[in-house]
Amino acid sequence: MEKLKKFLPKPLLVLTLVVLLGAMLRFYKLGELSFVADEFLDINSSYAYAQTGIWQNWDFNRGQVNEENAFAPRDERAWIYKIQVASLFEFLPPTEGVARSISAAWGVLTIGLIYLVAFQMTRSKRIGLIAAFLFAVSVSALIFDRRLRMYAMFAPLYLAFSYCVWAFLEKRYQGKRVFFKKIGDFGGFNFLYAPLALVLGVLSLMTHQLTGMFVFTLGAYLLVMFAIKFKEGAPIYRKYAFLLAATALALAAVQIFAPAFFASFAAGLAFFEDHWSYLSHVSLDYATPLGALLLGAWGAAALYRKNDSRSAAVFLAASFLAPLFGAIFLWSRNVGPQYIFFAQPFAIILLASGIDTVALLAKESFSKYKKDGAYVLATLMLLAAVPNWPYFLGENTIYRQTSSAETPNYRKVFTYLKKHLSSGDAVIMRNFRNYYLSGEGARVYDFGGELSKERLGAEQIRSIKESNALGFVVLSENDETFLTKEALEYIEKNMFRVSDTAVRGNVKVYEWGK
Length: 514
Fold this sequence. Notes:
By secondary structure, the protein is mostly helical. The protein has helices spanning about 1-5, 10-25, 40-50, 70-75, 80-90, 95-120, 125-135, 140-145, 150-170, 180-185, 195-205, 215-230, 235-255, 260-265, 280, 290-305, 310-330, 345-365, 370-385, 410-420, 460-465, 485-495, and strands at about 60, 65, 425-430, 445, 470-475, 495, 505-510. α6 (about 95-120) packs antiparallel against α7 and α17 (about 310-330) crosses α18.
C-alpha cells in the first residue's frame, strides 16, 4: 500500500483536478437552456425580493410586483436558498446563467464535501477521490446543479447533516478533554458533533422538508445495528435499543405537542404507493445500472467486513435505501427525480467503495508484476465504464435542446410572441412564465395551475377573445390539465395554431385576429 501511495499523485492534486472538472461541467453554457417548470417561480420571487426586500411574485411583463397572481407560500419557500440568488441581482442582471450560478457553486462545493464524507467514513482517500469524481460527472447532479432550484443546496446540507449524526453516534472522541472522553466511553457518543448536527439539520430543514425522511434512515440504521450487536452478544446493543425507543418517543411527543408541525410532514405519506419509476431516476447516472448496483453492493459488503467501517456501511446503505423505498412505497407526491436526488450521494460513496475493492483485487492478482499500475488501470477502466457517458452525446442534454426535448424552449417560443405582440395585446398562459415577456406590457390572462380551484372554461376563453382584437394562447403539454375539455375544443376550432420553427416540441401556440 505504501508503494501505491507513492505511485499515485497527491490526493489534494487529484481532488483539485476533479473539482475543476466538476466546475467546468457546471458553469459551461449555464444559461444555454431556457427556464423550465418551477424555475419560473424562483426567478420571480428572487427578483421580487431583490427589488422590494419582501418575498413576493414579480411580473417581468409589467415590471412590477404581481399582486393579482400572488403565490405567497411558494414565494417564501426555501428562502434560505433564494436569498443568495437575490443577492446576485443587486449587481448582476437576472439572466438564466446568473440565476443558476448559486446552484452551480453549491454543486462544486458538494464535490469536495463528498470527498471529505467518504474519506471520514471509510478511512480511504482513494474511495473519497473516486466518489468525488463520480459526483463531478453525475448526470443527476449536473441537472440539478444547473437549475434554479434549492435541490443543489439541499443535497450537500443533508449529506453533511447525516454525516454529523453518524459521527455523533459512532465516531470515537480523540481529543484530550476528560469530560467528553468519559461521556464517549460511557455511551459511545461524540458530543462534539451534536451542535453541528443540530445546526446543519435546521439549515437542511429550512431548505427542504424532505429532511424529515432522515427519521426513516435513522430508524432503519438503529434497527439493523441493534440486530447486529444483539446477535454478536455485544453489550453496546443497549445503546441502539435506547436510541430506537428515544426516537419513537420523540416522534410521539412531536405529534402530541406540535400536531401542525407533525402533520406538515405526515401529510405527504401514504402506504402502498407504487412509484417504481424512481428506480429509473436513480439509474440515470450509470451506463449499466445493473453493473452499478452490483458494484455498490460489493462496496457495501467490503466496508462491512472491516470492523472499523461496519457502521459506516450500514449507515450509507440505510441513507440511500430508506429514502428510495420511502419514495416508491410511501410518498403521496408527484414522482420526480428532484425528490430522490438528496439520497444519491450515499449510493455514490458505496459505488466508489466497490470500484476501489475491484481495483484492489486487480492489484493483488498482479502481485508479481506492476501491481500499482494494475490498480490504476482497473480504476480508470471502471470509471470509463460506469458513468453515463452516452448521455453527453445525446440529442438533448443539459447543454443543448432540440424540439424533441421533454421541456419546451420557452425562450424561443416567447421570442416569436414578442415579434408579433404589441403592448396591450392579449396572451392566455400560465402567468408565472412572464419572465420571457419582460417589458412587453401584454395583457396576460392567467389560467392558474396547481393552486387554481377551477379549470378555465370555454366561455371564459370566448369572452377574452371577443374583448381583444389580437391575442395568443400558449399551452405546454402539462398545461392542458388546467383547462376544461370544452375550452381546449374551442381553442382548436376558433383559433389558428402557429407553425413556426420557434414553436416546436411539447408546446402549442394559438393566435386570433391575425
